[in-house]
Description:
By secondary structure, this protein is of the alpha+beta class. It has 2 domains: 2-120, PAS domain (Beta-Lactamase); 125-341, Histidine kinase-like ATPase, C-terminal domain (Heat Shock Protein 90, 2-Layer Sandwich). Helix content is 44%, strand content 26%. It is built from 10 helices and 13 strands. The strands form 3 sheets. It has a 6-stranded mixed beta sheet with strand order 11-12-10-9-7-13. Helix 6 packs antiparallel against helix 7 (198-210). The radius of gyration is 30 Å and the shape is elongated. Residues 1-8, 186-190 and 331-342 have low confidence and may be disordered.
Amino acid sequence: MKNLVGNLQGHLAAVIEGSDDAIITKSLDSVIQSWNPGAERLFGYKAEEAVGQPITMLFPDDRIDEEAGFIARLCQGERISHFETIRKRKDGTLVPISLTVSPVRDNDGNIVGASKIARDITLQREADERQHLLLREMHHRVGNSFAVAGSLLSIAARQANSIEDLVAGMRQRFQALAAVHSKAVSDPSGDGPEGTNLADLTQSLLKPFTEGAPIQMDLPEIHICPSAITPLSLVFFELATNAVKYGGLSEMGDGLSIQAETLEDRLFIQWKEFCPSVPPSADPDRIGFGTRMCDSTASSSLGGTITRDFSSKGMIATLDLDLMCVAGSQTPMIDDETVLVG
Protein backbone atom coordinates (compact mmCIF):
# COMPACT_ATOMS: atom_id res chain seq x y z
CA MET A 1 0.00 0.00 0.00
CA LYS A 2 2.82 2.39 0.86
CA ASN A 3 4.41 1.68 -2.50
CA LEU A 4 1.10 2.35 -4.24
CA VAL A 5 0.64 5.64 -2.42
CA GLY A 6 4.22 6.59 -3.18
CA ASN A 7 3.76 5.80 -6.86
CA LEU A 8 0.58 7.84 -7.01
CA GLN A 9 2.25 10.79 -5.30
CA GLY A 10 5.19 10.55 -7.68
CA HIS A 11 2.86 10.41 -10.66
CA LEU A 12 0.89 13.41 -9.40
CA ALA A 13 4.10 15.37 -8.83
CA ALA A 14 5.23 14.58 -12.38
CA VAL A 15 1.91 15.76 -13.79
CA ILE A 16 2.14 19.04 -11.87
CA GLU A 17 5.77 19.61 -12.87
CA GLY A 18 5.09 18.88 -16.52
CA SER A 19 1.86 20.83 -16.85
CA ASP A 20 1.75 23.81 -19.21
CA ASP A 21 -0.78 25.41 -16.86
CA ALA A 22 0.18 27.31 -13.74
CA ILE A 23 -0.65 25.13 -10.69
CA ILE A 24 -0.43 26.91 -7.34
CA THR A 25 -1.49 26.03 -3.81
CA LYS A 26 -2.16 28.60 -1.12
CA SER A 27 -3.29 28.72 2.48
CA LEU A 28 -6.58 30.23 3.61
CA ASP A 29 -4.71 33.39 4.53
CA SER A 30 -3.75 33.67 0.83
CA VAL A 31 -0.04 32.78 1.19
CA ILE A 32 1.50 30.82 -1.68
CA GLN A 33 2.65 27.34 -0.61
CA SER A 34 3.65 25.70 -3.91
CA TRP A 35 4.51 26.95 -7.38
CA ASN A 36 5.08 24.75 -10.43
CA PRO A 37 7.18 25.49 -13.56
CA GLY A 38 4.01 26.40 -15.46
CA ALA A 39 3.41 29.20 -12.96
CA GLU A 40 6.98 30.38 -13.45
CA ARG A 41 6.50 30.54 -17.21
CA LEU A 42 3.15 32.28 -16.96
CA PHE A 43 3.90 34.84 -14.27
CA GLY A 44 7.70 35.22 -14.45
CA TYR A 45 8.47 34.49 -10.78
CA LYS A 46 10.71 31.58 -9.80
CA ALA A 47 9.39 29.26 -7.09
CA GLU A 48 11.76 30.68 -4.47
CA GLU A 49 10.47 34.18 -5.24
CA ALA A 50 6.80 33.21 -5.02
CA VAL A 51 6.47 30.68 -2.20
CA GLY A 52 5.70 32.45 1.07
CA GLN A 53 4.41 35.57 -0.67
CA PRO A 54 0.76 36.67 -0.74
CA ILE A 55 -1.11 35.46 -3.81
CA THR A 56 -2.37 39.03 -4.27
CA MET A 57 1.05 40.00 -5.66
CA LEU A 58 -0.39 38.63 -8.94
CA PHE A 59 -3.53 40.77 -8.75
CA PRO A 60 -3.90 44.10 -10.53
CA ASP A 61 -5.09 46.82 -8.16
CA ASP A 62 -8.63 46.72 -9.53
CA ARG A 63 -8.91 42.93 -8.95
CA ILE A 64 -7.79 42.69 -5.31
CA ASP A 65 -11.38 42.21 -4.09
CA GLU A 66 -11.61 38.93 -6.00
CA GLU A 67 -9.45 37.14 -3.44
CA ALA A 68 -11.83 37.76 -0.52
CA GLY A 69 -14.65 36.36 -2.64
CA PHE A 70 -12.60 33.26 -3.50
CA ILE A 71 -11.79 32.58 0.15
CA ALA A 72 -15.43 32.97 1.22
CA ARG A 73 -16.60 30.52 -1.44
CA LEU A 74 -13.79 28.04 -0.71
CA CYS A 75 -14.67 27.99 2.99
CA GLN A 76 -18.15 26.87 1.94
CA GLY A 77 -16.54 23.96 0.08
CA GLU A 78 -17.31 25.46 -3.32
CA ARG A 79 -15.15 24.78 -6.38
CA ILE A 80 -14.73 27.71 -8.78
CA SER A 81 -14.41 26.64 -12.43
CA HIS A 82 -13.24 28.52 -15.53
CA PHE A 83 -13.31 31.95 -13.91
CA GLU A 84 -11.92 34.44 -16.45
CA THR A 85 -9.95 37.32 -15.03
CA ILE A 86 -6.74 39.33 -15.36
CA ARG A 87 -3.47 38.81 -13.49
CA LYS A 88 -0.18 40.68 -13.37
CA ARG A 89 3.20 39.22 -14.32
CA LYS A 90 6.51 39.98 -12.62
CA ASP A 91 7.36 42.54 -15.31
CA GLY A 92 4.07 44.34 -14.70
CA THR A 93 2.32 43.23 -17.87
CA LEU A 94 -1.24 41.97 -17.61
CA VAL A 95 -2.37 38.57 -18.86
CA PRO A 96 -5.93 37.22 -19.24
CA ILE A 97 -6.35 33.83 -17.58
CA SER A 98 -8.97 31.17 -17.00
CA LEU A 99 -8.86 30.14 -13.36
CA THR A 100 -10.09 27.02 -11.57
CA VAL A 101 -9.92 27.10 -7.76
CA SER A 102 -10.55 24.02 -5.60
CA PRO A 103 -10.54 23.61 -1.82
CA VAL A 104 -7.69 21.58 -0.25
CA ARG A 105 -8.66 19.46 2.78
CA ASP A 106 -6.58 17.84 5.52
CA ASN A 107 -6.93 14.22 6.67
CA ASP A 108 -9.94 15.15 8.80
CA GLY A 109 -11.75 16.77 5.89
CA ASN A 110 -11.20 20.31 7.05
CA ILE A 111 -10.57 22.95 4.36
CA VAL A 112 -7.05 24.27 4.93
CA GLY A 113 -6.21 25.91 1.64
CA ALA A 114 -6.82 26.00 -2.07
CA SER A 115 -5.28 24.83 -5.32
CA LYS A 116 -5.38 27.10 -8.34
CA ILE A 117 -4.97 26.14 -11.97
CA ALA A 118 -4.44 29.15 -14.23
CA ARG A 119 -4.38 28.99 -18.03
CA ASP A 120 -3.23 31.79 -20.32
CA ILE A 121 -6.17 32.66 -22.62
CA THR A 122 -4.48 35.49 -24.52
CA LEU A 123 -4.80 33.72 -27.88
CA GLN A 124 -8.39 32.77 -27.17
CA ARG A 125 -9.26 36.37 -26.28
CA GLU A 126 -7.55 37.65 -29.43
CA ALA A 127 -9.40 35.09 -31.55
CA ASP A 128 -12.71 36.07 -29.94
CA GLU A 129 -12.01 39.75 -30.54
CA ARG A 130 -11.09 39.10 -34.18
CA GLN A 131 -14.25 37.06 -34.68
CA HIS A 132 -16.36 39.76 -33.05
CA LEU A 133 -14.75 42.43 -35.23
CA LEU A 134 -15.19 40.34 -38.39
CA LEU A 135 -18.86 39.72 -37.60
CA ARG A 136 -19.45 43.42 -36.99
CA GLU A 137 -17.55 44.33 -40.13
CA MET A 138 -19.51 41.76 -42.14
CA HIS A 139 -22.76 43.21 -40.80
CA HIS A 140 -21.54 46.70 -41.67
CA ARG A 141 -20.30 45.63 -45.12
CA VAL A 142 -23.58 43.86 -45.98
CA GLY A 143 -25.61 46.89 -44.92
CA ASN A 144 -23.26 49.18 -46.80
CA SER A 145 -23.47 46.99 -49.89
CA PHE A 146 -27.24 47.43 -50.04
CA ALA A 147 -26.81 51.18 -49.55
CA VAL A 148 -24.14 51.27 -52.28
CA ALA A 149 -26.34 49.26 -54.64
CA GLY A 150 -29.20 51.67 -54.03
CA SER A 151 -27.00 54.70 -54.56
CA LEU A 152 -25.42 53.26 -57.72
CA LEU A 153 -28.89 52.41 -59.02
CA SER A 154 -29.93 56.04 -58.54
CA ILE A 155 -26.81 57.25 -60.38
CA ALA A 156 -27.31 54.80 -63.24
CA ALA A 157 -31.02 55.64 -63.48
CA ARG A 158 -30.25 59.35 -63.91
CA GLN A 159 -27.85 58.53 -66.74
CA ALA A 160 -29.81 55.76 -68.48
CA ASN A 161 -32.13 56.33 -71.43
CA SER A 162 -33.62 52.83 -71.33
CA ILE A 163 -33.90 49.73 -69.22
CA GLU A 164 -31.08 48.20 -71.27
CA ASP A 165 -28.83 51.17 -70.48
CA LEU A 166 -29.67 50.86 -66.80
CA VAL A 167 -28.86 47.14 -66.68
CA ALA A 168 -25.62 47.65 -68.62
CA GLY A 169 -24.55 50.51 -66.37
CA MET A 170 -25.18 48.56 -63.17
CA ARG A 171 -23.41 45.49 -64.54
CA GLN A 172 -20.37 47.62 -65.41
CA ARG A 173 -20.24 49.11 -61.94
CA PHE A 174 -20.50 45.77 -60.16
CA GLN A 175 -17.86 44.27 -62.44
CA ALA A 176 -15.53 47.13 -61.54
CA LEU A 177 -16.02 46.45 -57.83
CA ALA A 178 -15.37 42.74 -58.42
CA ALA A 179 -12.14 43.62 -60.28
CA VAL A 180 -10.88 45.58 -57.28
CA HIS A 181 -11.74 42.64 -55.00
CA SER A 182 -9.79 40.25 -57.23
CA LYS A 183 -6.65 42.37 -56.89
CA ALA A 184 -6.75 42.06 -53.14
CA VAL A 185 -7.55 38.37 -52.68
CA SER A 186 -5.40 35.34 -53.49
CA ASP A 187 -6.87 32.50 -55.54
CA PRO A 188 -6.41 29.36 -53.38
CA SER A 189 -5.71 27.32 -56.52
CA GLY A 190 -3.31 29.80 -58.10
CA ASP A 191 -0.71 32.45 -57.44
CA GLY A 192 -1.20 35.25 -54.97
CA PRO A 193 -1.81 38.86 -56.04
CA GLU A 194 1.24 40.83 -57.14
CA GLY A 195 -0.10 44.18 -56.06
CA THR A 196 -1.00 47.24 -58.09
CA ASN A 197 -0.25 50.96 -58.06
CA LEU A 198 -2.03 53.74 -56.23
CA ALA A 199 -3.53 55.40 -59.32
CA ASP A 200 -4.86 52.14 -60.81
CA LEU A 201 -6.32 51.00 -57.49
CA THR A 202 -8.02 54.33 -56.90
CA GLN A 203 -9.41 54.56 -60.44
CA SER A 204 -10.70 50.98 -60.36
CA LEU A 205 -12.33 51.44 -56.99
CA LEU A 206 -13.97 54.78 -57.83
CA LYS A 207 -15.14 53.89 -61.33
CA PRO A 208 -18.50 52.44 -60.21
CA PHE A 209 -19.22 55.58 -58.18
CA THR A 210 -18.05 58.40 -60.39
CA GLU A 211 -19.34 58.20 -63.97
CA GLY A 212 -20.15 61.76 -64.99
CA ALA A 213 -18.97 63.23 -61.68
CA PRO A 214 -16.12 65.77 -61.67
CA ILE A 215 -13.17 63.91 -60.19
CA GLN A 216 -9.54 65.00 -60.12
CA MET A 217 -6.69 62.76 -59.00
CA ASP A 218 -3.09 63.86 -58.60
CA LEU A 219 -1.25 60.72 -57.48
CA PRO A 220 2.41 59.69 -57.51
CA GLU A 221 3.28 56.36 -59.15
CA ILE A 222 3.45 54.31 -55.95
CA HIS A 223 3.34 50.51 -55.83
CA ILE A 224 0.73 49.05 -53.48
CA CYS A 225 1.88 45.73 -52.05
CA PRO A 226 -0.67 42.86 -51.82
CA SER A 227 -1.04 43.12 -48.03
CA ALA A 228 -2.01 46.81 -48.30
CA ILE A 229 -4.61 46.46 -51.08
CA THR A 230 -7.46 45.21 -48.91
CA PRO A 231 -7.05 47.70 -46.01
CA LEU A 232 -6.56 50.65 -48.38
CA SER A 233 -9.55 49.51 -50.46
CA LEU A 234 -11.69 49.27 -47.31
CA VAL A 235 -10.86 52.85 -46.38
CA PHE A 236 -11.44 54.19 -49.91
CA PHE A 237 -14.62 52.15 -50.28
CA GLU A 238 -15.98 53.57 -47.03
CA LEU A 239 -15.15 57.11 -48.12
CA ALA A 240 -16.66 56.57 -51.57
CA THR A 241 -19.80 55.02 -50.11
CA ASN A 242 -20.37 57.98 -47.83
CA ALA A 243 -19.55 60.38 -50.69
CA VAL A 244 -22.29 58.81 -52.83
CA LYS A 245 -24.79 58.80 -49.99
CA TYR A 246 -24.04 62.14 -48.36
CA GLY A 247 -21.12 64.02 -49.90
CA GLY A 248 -19.28 65.02 -53.05
CA LEU A 249 -20.71 62.21 -55.21
CA SER A 250 -24.31 62.61 -54.07
CA GLU A 251 -27.00 64.58 -55.92
CA MET A 252 -26.04 67.66 -53.90
CA GLY A 253 -22.30 67.17 -54.41
CA ASP A 254 -19.88 68.86 -56.80
CA GLY A 255 -17.33 66.03 -57.06
CA LEU A 256 -14.09 65.37 -55.27
CA SER A 257 -10.32 65.47 -55.62
CA ILE A 258 -7.72 63.01 -54.40
CA GLN A 259 -4.10 64.02 -54.01
CA ALA A 260 -1.11 62.19 -52.57
CA GLU A 261 2.50 62.96 -51.82
CA THR A 262 5.41 61.27 -50.09
CA LEU A 263 7.54 62.85 -47.42
CA GLU A 264 10.49 60.78 -46.19
CA ASP A 265 8.92 57.51 -44.97
CA ARG A 266 5.29 58.72 -44.98
CA LEU A 267 2.55 58.73 -47.60
CA PHE A 268 -0.04 61.49 -47.30
CA ILE A 269 -3.36 61.12 -49.14
CA GLN A 270 -5.94 63.91 -49.13
CA TRP A 271 -9.53 63.04 -50.08
CA LYS A 272 -11.47 66.26 -50.59
CA GLU A 273 -15.23 66.39 -51.27
CA PHE A 274 -17.02 69.46 -52.57
CA CYS A 275 -20.45 69.57 -51.02
CA PRO A 276 -22.20 71.37 -48.17
CA SER A 277 -21.64 68.41 -45.89
CA VAL A 278 -21.93 67.22 -42.32
CA PRO A 279 -20.99 63.85 -40.81
CA PRO A 280 -23.46 61.16 -41.98
CA SER A 281 -24.94 60.85 -38.49
CA ALA A 282 -25.57 64.63 -38.39
CA ASP A 283 -23.85 64.50 -35.00
CA PRO A 284 -20.11 65.40 -35.11
CA ASP A 285 -19.56 63.80 -31.71
CA ARG A 286 -20.93 60.40 -32.75
CA ILE A 287 -18.43 57.95 -34.26
CA GLY A 288 -20.03 55.17 -36.32
CA PHE A 289 -18.65 51.71 -37.00
CA GLY A 290 -17.41 52.69 -40.47
CA THR A 291 -15.35 55.51 -38.98
CA ARG A 292 -13.96 53.23 -36.28
CA MET A 293 -13.18 50.59 -38.90
CA CYS A 294 -11.26 53.12 -41.01
CA ASP A 295 -9.35 54.36 -37.97
CA SER A 296 -8.49 50.82 -36.88
CA THR A 297 -7.48 49.75 -40.40
CA ALA A 298 -5.26 52.78 -40.94
CA SER A 299 -3.56 52.18 -37.59
CA SER A 300 -3.17 48.39 -37.54
CA SER A 301 -2.60 47.61 -41.25
CA LEU A 302 -1.21 50.80 -42.75
CA GLY A 303 0.84 52.21 -39.88
CA GLY A 304 -0.95 55.53 -39.81
CA THR A 305 -3.99 57.63 -39.08
CA ILE A 306 -7.01 59.12 -40.82
CA THR A 307 -8.52 62.45 -39.85
CA ARG A 308 -11.66 64.16 -41.15
CA ASP A 309 -12.54 67.84 -41.24
CA PHE A 310 -16.07 69.00 -42.07
CA SER A 311 -16.99 72.50 -43.18
CA SER A 312 -19.74 74.33 -45.04
CA LYS A 313 -17.86 73.59 -48.29
CA GLY A 314 -17.50 69.85 -47.82
CA MET A 315 -15.24 67.31 -46.16
CA ILE A 316 -11.50 66.64 -46.21
CA ALA A 317 -10.13 63.26 -45.09
CA THR A 318 -6.36 63.06 -44.63
CA LEU A 319 -4.51 59.74 -44.48
CA ASP A 320 -1.02 59.77 -42.97
CA LEU A 321 0.38 56.30 -43.73
CA ASP A 322 3.65 54.39 -43.32
CA LEU A 323 5.12 54.22 -46.83
CA MET A 324 6.73 50.83 -46.15
CA CYS A 325 3.38 49.35 -45.04
CA VAL A 326 1.78 50.57 -48.25
CA ALA A 327 4.54 49.91 -50.78
CA GLY A 328 6.23 46.93 -49.16
CA SER A 329 9.87 46.30 -49.97
CA GLN A 330 9.65 47.90 -53.40
CA THR A 331 11.08 51.39 -53.68
CA PRO A 332 8.24 53.63 -54.88
CA MET A 333 8.66 55.94 -57.84
CA ILE A 334 8.08 59.54 -56.87
CA ASP A 335 7.45 61.03 -60.33
CA ASP A 336 4.07 62.69 -60.00
CA GLU A 337 1.44 61.93 -62.62
CA THR A 338 -1.81 63.88 -62.68
CA VAL A 339 -4.84 61.78 -63.55
CA LEU A 340 -8.09 63.51 -64.49
CA VAL A 341 -11.33 61.56 -64.35
CA GLY A 342 -14.84 62.67 -65.26
